[in-house]
Design a protein that fits this description.
Layout: E1 12-17, H1 32-46, E2 51-56, H2 74-97, E3 103-107, E4 116-117, H3 120-128, E5 132-136, H4 146-156, E6 161-166, E7 171-172, E8 184-185, E9 187-189, H5 190-195, H6 203-211, E10 216-220, H7 226-231, E11 237-241
Parallel strand pairs: 1-2, 1-6, 2-5, 3-4, 3-5, 6-10, 9-11
Antiparallel strand pairs: 7-8, 10-11
Helix pairs in contact: 1-2, 4-6
Length: 243
């Protein structure tokens, strides 16, 4: 069993959490068990000295392109989805603070009673002081996913890497649920992802990362210790690097 890292491989990290990852075995909403588990994983990571920012989705509560939004105007549905991300962000903040961490939620939509407004320089200052910053409400604009928000915020805060924590343990050449012979990549370039049509993130987010040469690491959130191991430089999923 590998020894625990003494120092992180990355100084500043943007962690993208899907809303679905917070459901656990529930059909919708937030699993307190999963929330506590995620908070513990994040606490272990911050203890390494990592400056950590988080973008959380809202798909466990509402998605702008979901069946429940079919009768709605797309922009209105997306705004409801942004509100769902704020609910998740505040819930995650509470779980982290019960672990003794200092946190700030910054929202792209103004709601002063719940969160700070998103201000890039303030976010960076929070990170420098060791606070976990949770970015909520996506980009504040409809028609953009939380993947795009994660890529954008990662660029703005000068993150070293974007972690995408999912339900699978990396990027495969085909759907591993449907195909038992699916092959997992340990390392792949942006160009190979495009040529092989590998589904890493939505294309807007992917293009942002590629244009700015930001590495993307995709790994299984639910395998205990994965976040901490990834920060130590271990290969726990798939990393996407510059061409």
């Amino acid at each position: 069993m590998p020894s625990e890292p003494d120092r992180p491989a990355y100084k500043r990290v943007l962690l993208k959490l899907s809303g679905e990852a917070l459901m656990g075995e529930e059909r919708f909403g937030i699993s307190t068990r999963v929330l506590g588990y995620v908070a513990g994983e994040i606490a272990d990571t911050v203890a390494l000295g990592v400056e950590l920012a988080i973008v959380v989705g809202g798909g466990n509560i509402f998605r702008g392109v979901s069946r429940s939004a079919q009768e709605m105007d797309r922009a209105s549905a997306d705004y409801v989805g942004m509100l769902a991300t704020v609910m998740n962000a505040v819930s995650l903040q509470d779980a982290l603070e019960r672990r003794g961490l200092q946190t700030r939620v910054q929202s792209a939509i103004s709601m002063a009673e719940l969160a700070e407004p998103y201000i890039r320089r303030r976010a960076i200052r929070h990170l420098e002081k060791g606070r976990v910053v949770i970015f909520a409400a996506g980009t504040g604009n409809p028609y953009f996913t939380t993947d795009t928000a994660a890529a954008l915020r990662a660029m703005e805060i000068h993150a070293d890497v974007l972690y995408k924590a999912t339900k699978v343990d990396g990027i495969y050449d085909k759907d591993p649920v449907k195909h038992k012979d699916a092959r997992r990549y340990e390392k792949v370039t942006y160009l190979e992802c495009l040529q092989k049509d590998l589904k890493v993130m939505d294309m807007t987010a992917f293009a942002l990362c590629r244009d700015n040469k930001l590495p993307i690491m995709v790994f299984n959130l639910h395998e205990r210790g994965n976040i901490k191991r990834a920060l130590g430089g271990e290969r726990v999923g798939t990393i996407v690097v510059a061409d």
